[in-house]
Amino acid sequence: MPFAGEGLRDRLVRGSGDTLSAVMTEMVLRAMVPDDWDAVAELVYTSTNYWYASKGAGAIFAGGPDVARVFPEVYEALDPGCC
Predict the structure, then answer these.
(1) Whose CB among 20, 56, 68, 78 lies 3.0–4.6 Å from 44's, allowing a Cys bridge?
(2) pLDDT score of 22 more than 80
């Protein structure tokens, strides 16, 4: 069974004539720790704004990545030690 994005990848390769390649390294999943919160907030802020802007809606967050820090803080408060 093909992975979910395989058809899109094939169209992109054929459509542009370019070759797509990726280098995968080992992925390690772990619980988020408070030292990660700023990076997670920046990821949420940037990726969400990009997604909304790509749909023509414009950025949904304003004020910088610190405004998205509420996400890791709330998740930690809801499930202490597991985020």
Answers:
(1) 68
(2) no
